[in-house]
Amino acid sequence: MLGKGSDLFFKEFISNSDQPVYYQMYDSIRSAILEKRFNPGEKLPPTRSIAKFCKVSRSTVQNAFDLLMAEGYIFGQPGSGTFVCNNLPEKFLTVKPTTSSINEEPVMPDFSEFAKRLDKSIFKNYIYTGYRPFQVGIPSLKDFPYELWSKIAQKSAKDLSHPEMGYSDPRGLLTLREMISLYLRQSRGVKCDAGRIIIINGAQQALLLAAKMFLDSNDEIIVEDPTYQSALEVFKTTGAKITYIPVDSDGINIEKIKQSATQAKLIYSTPSHQFPLGPTMSLKRRLELLQWAVNNSALILEDDYDSEYRYTGNPLSSLQGMADKSPVIYIGTFSKVLYPGLRLGYMVVPETLVEPFTLAKTVVDRNAPMLEQLILARFMEEGHFGRHLRRMRVIYEERQQVLISEFNKHLAGFGTMDSCHAGLHNIAYLNKKYKDVDLQQKAAKVNIHAAALSNYCGERNDLNGLLFGYSAFDNEEIKSNMTALKEAFSRFA
Questions:
Q1: Are 226 and 314 found together in one domain?
Q2: Are 488 and 443 in contact (CB under 8 A)?
Q3: 291 and 375 within one domain
Q4: Which residues of 181-207 are buried (b: 16+ CB within 10 A; e: fewer)?
Q5: Which listed residue, 33, 244, 319, 381, has the most CB atoms within 10 A of its CB?
Q6: Average pLDDT of the residues in 14-36
Q7: Which of 266, 269, 270 lies closest to 221 in space, CA to CA?
Q8: DSSP sequence for 326-363
């Protein structure tokens, strides 16, 4: 006999699960203590007696008691026995609900200048509501090699070492940086080694780091007109003065930069495939831009937007690779090559900026997720990255041709759409009788996203068109949505 209450409790104890018996006993006794079936200060039966009564080994009971003692539910008193603790762990882990007479919204402190400069309209762009045709900048997730990626992910997770699970080099996994360095040297002519590469959480973080490092309120930055709006909003948060320089078929207009008498510290440019217009900056303009930056102690932020997807002609080398000591920070991302949720990108910085940017990265978020870096490094090392790129180029080029054909079939009366040598979207330039913002609204009513080109402009008012992203949508989706657009636009005919 164990005692009146103990007899009843231990008689009910039956080992009936896959868990170890000692753990089942620990869990049962713990629950009984919390339910006050064993009261604070109450003495528990000896381990030998419990073992005999329950027909288990004494070591099983002792293991259960050891775990309960370690967690603060029971304590042993030499010569007297084992007792239930008066102050249980749950007492310190559970917050008792309290009431207060405060029933009004608290008055918050004033926002910082950074917060005041945030554009509320940006938030709408980052609320996920599903992808809509013809949204720009989305890769074909249906064609991503999920099974292969999953196998590499499983292997990488198994091989993840203890050091890799802790805080690591803020610049990123060395193996991944070496693979990126090799890829950039071969495909983009970038002059770098792994030591000059910093792994970031997408191109947006690179722009934020650069802006924070070089721009104070009223400092000047040059941006292309039109330009990538998410980059523009980053620069605006610093309070910097934005100088818009128009883009033509050869890229950013260097003469306009000279005429502006600007004292810009930074130049943001997308020379390989200008966003959103699409031209590649000519060799002459590239050399002129580099020289202007050197002469004026300015730094170029080269966003190599969509450089991976080129369908005709040979690509020009990156700006960064055109000089041994180029005043360029080169920025790239895997969001459009693999998938946006990966949140991995890279920046190649001049040797003198490696330490400052590493410190900045450390302050912002220490380092990018290690497991994703391991997976990507293996994906590249085993040759899957290159094969995936080649396969997707073929798919995207075909989709672009289908898009142009369907536009000419259904919407030729509204404007013109020509083929583009690179990228993941095309522009339809509208006839003067139509306004792009009006047609964008009409498209939205049938759940189609045809972005107005004029919304990407800073000071220009001569651009009137719609952006059509085609990469994420198969041929049949492109055809059906072009038909839907025709019906939505019909009242403007």
A1: yes
A2: yes
A3: yes
A4: bebbeeebebbbebebbbbbbbbbbbb
A5: 319
A6: 82
A7: 266
A8: --EEEEEESTTTT-GGG--EEEE--GGGHHHHHHHHHH
The token duo for 367 is 């380092």
AA identity, residue 413 = G
Q: How far is CA 303 from the centre of its chain?
A: 16
Question: Whole-model pTM?
Answer: 0.80
Q: Please, are residues 298 and 264 in contact by the beta-carbon 8 Å criterion? A: yes
Does 9 fall in a domain? no
Per-chain mean pLDDT for the chain: 90
The DSSP secondary-structure symbol of 266 reads E
Domain count, the chain: 3
- Residue type, position 285, single letter: R
Structure confidence at residue 124 as a pLDDT band (50, 70, 90): low
Contact assessment for residue 317 and residue 308, using Cβ atoms and an 8 Å cutoff: no
Contact 409, 482 (CB under 8 A): yes
Q: How far is CA 128 from the centre of its chain?
A: 13
| 26-71 tens-digit pLDDT | 888 988 888 888 899 999 999 998 888 888 899 999 999 998 998 8
Residues 274 and 157 in one domain: yes
Q: Which of 177, 191, 181, 210 has its CA nearest to residue 361?
A: 210
Q: Return the DSSP state at 280.
A: P
DSSP code of residue 142: G
Which domain range does residue 26 map to? Answer: 21-93
Sequence-ordered strand ranges (E) for 38-80: 43-44, 74-77
Between CA 110 and CA 267 the distance in angstroms is: 32
Residues 397 and 486 in one domain: yes
Query: pLDDT for 179-236, tens place per residue?
Result: 999 999 999 999 999 999 999 999 999 999 999 999 999 999 999 999 999 999 999 9
Residues 6+ away with beta carbon under 8 Å from 64: 22, 23, 25, 26, 29
**Domain of 38: which CATH number?**
1.10.10.10
* Per-position b or e across 18-53, b if 16+ CB within 10 A of its CB: eeebbebbbebbbebbeeeebeeebebbebebbbeb
Q: Which of 311, 247, 243, 333 is nearest to 282 (CA)?
A: 247
